Each structure stands twice: as structure tokens, then as C-alpha cells.
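Appendix B, record 7
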Amino acid sequence: MKLLFLSDVRNFQFSEMIINHLKPSYVLFLGDILFDGPGQFYIVDKLKIQNFFERDKLLKENQVYSIKRHLIIKGNTHISKEMFRIHLYYFLKTLKLLERLNIGYALISGNHDMFIDYNDLFLHNGLNKGIFIENYRKILIDNTVVILSSYGSSLDPLSVKDAKIVATHESQRKLKDIIKNLRACSGLISGHYGIKIELYSGDKQVRSAPYEKLLIKIDDFPLSFAVYEKESFILYKTDIESLINFKLKSWNFNTIYKRICMVNS
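C-alpha cells (predicted):
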């Protein structure tokens, strides 16, 4: 079993490269999927510009940089309809890729996209392998108990005691409440608040092993995301310049690797 976690999406253009490289068995979208505070960026071939957007509107609504035969577009789907069209196009392309590869997926809402009904989006685009969790839900993935909790949900911190992984999109305060109630040898992963891995012994943060619990923070996909496999989390990190230089084909991320439990070290 290999789980891919992503959140606070800046760009779905690199999703195919990442999915084909990692070959996850399940993908979990942890909020701020179509809308995110910092905004989005895309790289568009000038020769195919008419397939994506109206040029005049795009130039008015966003920052556009020209590099050889490509345009780098930086904007925000909250205010730019043309950026939203591009972002939605690549999002649906990503979901269709997952369905074609028979990869299951689940989505929760973040603070920026709580008003979106992803179930309705699935229905109108013929997508049937994904689930949208509006509040919170316990799911079983290959006998691993995962609790998914949307931003601001009514999740009782005590209810996480039987979960191996809790995946959410929450504030630091609520994350601390959840960590306190996690059982030993389990992990909490959240979008919304930074990019790092924190170690905990009980509910106390520690600097090194021995530790019992992990808190994994992800943000700004595809600049960061995480993978869970074989009792371990791997946090992947890069930057925009590196991605652009990848030319949508290469693979080069910095990684941090942590086993989910190190109580006997």
C-alpha cells in the first residue's frame, strides 16, 4: 500500500509526472484544492494558448512571464476566472488519470474551498472512484484505518484513538488536540500550516528518537507532498524554479524520511 497526500494546490500540471513516478495505490487531497491563498502558477505553451484561455483576460487578471516558447502564469483562482479555468482543467485531468489507472482517491475541504461540492463535480464529469468527505469519516485502506477530517469539522479528538493515520486540514491548535489523543505508533498529516515533520512522545514534541507519533505538515502542492508506505512517511519538497527546469519530465525532490514509530530506539 502506498498513500499519496497533497494539499493547498498551486499547480496540477505536474500531477501526471508525480503519479506515474510514485505509482500510489490511493491519493488523498487534504483541502484547498481549487482555491488557495497564495495562488496558482502554470506553464503554457504559446502555440497552444487558444486551447486554455482568452489571452486578453489572462493578461489583465494575472502576472504573465515569457520564457522561450512558454508563458509562466501566476495568479489566484479566487479572483481570476481564466486561472480557474486552467486549474480546473488540470484538476479534472488528474482525476481522470487516477480513474484510468484504477487508483482510488478521497477529498476533504480546506478553509479556502469549503463551499465547493466535490460530489457534484464528480457527478457532472462522470467520475466514480472518488469520495468527498464534507465533515469527517473513518475509511479503511488495505486494512489501515484512516480518519479524514475537513477544515472546521466536528471531529471529536477522542475518536482518533483507533486510527493509524489522521488526515486533515487544520489550525495548529486543533492539531495539538488531535496529537494528544493519537495512540502510539500513529501519524497525523495536515495541509494548511507549513511544510515539516514533527516528532512527539505522548503529546510532547521532541527533537529526536525515541518518539511515538509523527505530525507531517504539507502545503503548496506540487512543491511539497507526502507518501506513506511500509510504516513510514516521506516528505517531498522542491521549489518553483526547480519544477520549471524539470520541463515537466524529470524527477528531483528533496526528501525527509521518518518511520511512524521509534519508541524502542
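Remarks on this record: The radius of gyration is 19 Å. Helices lie at 15-22, 55-61, 81-100, 118-124, 172-181, 240-246.
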